[in-house]
């Protein structure tokens, strides 16, 4: 039986600094920050938040680009006993208003360029707002604050799902859940010798958040170079200049990097990529491993599982799988669906006990993903249950179609969805984005897929787009794709 607060994330951050000491740990846009500077500033920001009325359990929105203040603010919010509520800055006004209202946030930390959007969305809500580079400095003016005690099952973060299948839902994650998932990520990195990483992920997403927490578990001095927002050319330049060894990515980032003149850069320092957020097509994995001379370690999880369930390691990996369940996660396949049990499972959906009861049953989180476990315990993700296309009574998984289309050398990104059809119920259709400089027509891609797939599976329509719609974290936005194919 653990003692209350043993997994407090503020304690984790404090111990990390005590263990590793002061060193240059974070590089951002021409400036190095030391671990000591980040730690000390976070203790002062915690005191500033308390002085401005933030109480334990209060939700504090963090809505910024990727900047060092994200690292500082997360630590400070946990130190003050409050709840990190990350918001990706690519929100519409109504979406942001919903999150602010639903969460009941009392304070917010935002980037200066987001002030107009935030102010309009927060009108009348009484949220105390601190702007990075301006009023944020006032938070750091006082003396350092001590850590506010929190129990293991206290709320540490409230993350809102992307809302591509409906209105965004608040996912409640505990201190222990995030602590355990972060340790799982650190165990993966421990299987490598890499210590210098490039962070292009939005830190306001579950994947980015757990990468940050994973670093707090490390026994090694880790160095991170932070990108304000993912830019493939900038990514290549940073890897070459700072001899970076690893980078957490999502599949679309790899696809965009492969489209660049990457051979013009010295990328010989790279050792491995961690890939998550969406299933990685085998063709893209093989191409990226060959192009960049790396091993790709794929992982799997969802916001409701504190971001991570399984992952490959350097010593234990199998292409096509998403690795083995990490120590904190017990996985079972129930009627084809991936279910998980353990401390990482969310406390529930904020203000929605009915949906919580539907999603977590007898302690098991039903992920909504179709998968299987092989005889050696490796987990494979087939597709999303909600994305399943049923054509004339036959099940078609979009990933199968996308993988085939991605085999065509002209296709950079592919997205497959079901389109309502009077005869078959649903028809299989797809949209693609081409590699710059390449040409192929939609009908040609239909014939390409037809020659490689069962008759009921291949897409009857393929539309070439300038850009396949993506979410703010680089995943295919299937809702937007469905809207596109319905109106064409």
TrEMBL record:
Belongs to the ATP-dependent AMP-binding enzyme family. It comes from Actinoplanes aureus. One of its GO terms (molecular function) is medium-chain fatty acid-CoA ligase activity. The keyword Ligase applies. This is AMP-binding protein. Keywords: Ligase. The lineage of its organism: Bacteria, Bacillati, Actinomycetota, Actinomycetes, Micromonosporales. Residues 401-475 form the AMP-binding enzyme C-terminal domain. InterPro entries: AMP-bd_C, AMP-bd_C_sf, AMP-binding_CS, AMP-dep_synth/lig_dom, ANL_N_sf. The keyword Mitochondrion does not apply. Transmembrane segments: none annotated. GO terms for biological process: fatty acid metabolic process. Residues 15-350 form the AMP-dependent synthetase/ligase domain.
